[in-house]
Amino acid sequence: MIDGLPEESDADDAHDAVHGHPRLDGSGTINQRKFVVALARGLKVLRAFRPGDDSLSNAEIARRTGLPKPTISRLTYTLTTLGYLGGVPETGGYRLDPHILSLGYPVLAKLGVRQIARPLMQRLADYSRGTVAIGIRDGLSLILVERSQDRTVVTMPLEIGSHLPIATTSMGRAYLAALPAGDRAVLMDEIRRGGPPDWWPTVRRSIDAELARFDRCGYCVSVGDWDPDIIGVGAPLVLPDGTILAFNCGGPISRIPRERADDIGEKLKEVVNSVAVAYRAGPPLTL
Prior knowledge:
The chain has helices at 8-18, 37-47, 58-65, 69-81, 101-110, 113-128, 170-178, 181-193, 200-217, 261-281; strands at 85-88, 93-96, 131-138, 141-149, 163-165, 220-223, 230-238, 244-252. The protein is of the alpha+beta class. Helix 1 (8-18) packs across helix 2, helix 6 (113-128) runs antiparallel to helix 10 (261-281) and helix 7 packs across helix 9.
């Protein structure tokens, strides 16, 4: 390290750590003097855990993150000492500790819009015979922060905390539609670089078609793009502070025929508009 500048390998880590995540300045560049690689690596370890993981060993974390095992050993020790990871004696591995929820609670508490939206989402879920959800950006995905499902749904839908890709879901395309043009171009480039070369042209055409639909109709549709058996309709809500929430209504095509997409799209817009009016009418609610 020379004059406080990261070495070349650290610069590579810096790019890997922020690839697919919102940049503070929106420029798509990293200020190496300000970027703390050690912190980025620690957060990368936390992001290695996925829904359904009982525990992960240092070797498994190293494989998922691409970081050296000695580095992983130091990071897991530090994160365990701080209470964000817990040791699992039976496997010798680690799992996320409930203490980590303290990091996300302030964000969720700010999203009092969820409380306003719940009854409206439930009515739409029952009307559509599907699931209605709200997502907020997390890298190249949207993380679900609220959901309601039709009371007749038997199969378990995606849980709160699940991730959906921006590129191929109606929720993700609605998020793209709400972004300013410059920010959208940066994110689209991140999406392009995040997938195989032969995948992007088809995905780009679908995204462009749905952005055009949004301009005409105010919502986006995905039929089999994310999952061959799933249909979804998405619409965005931009909060006064600039936070973009993406609403989605969808489910199996066997329950929601393609012919209902426009009808559900109009109903979803009504939900989003009603939430926006109620949210702006008074102080933000808490959970």
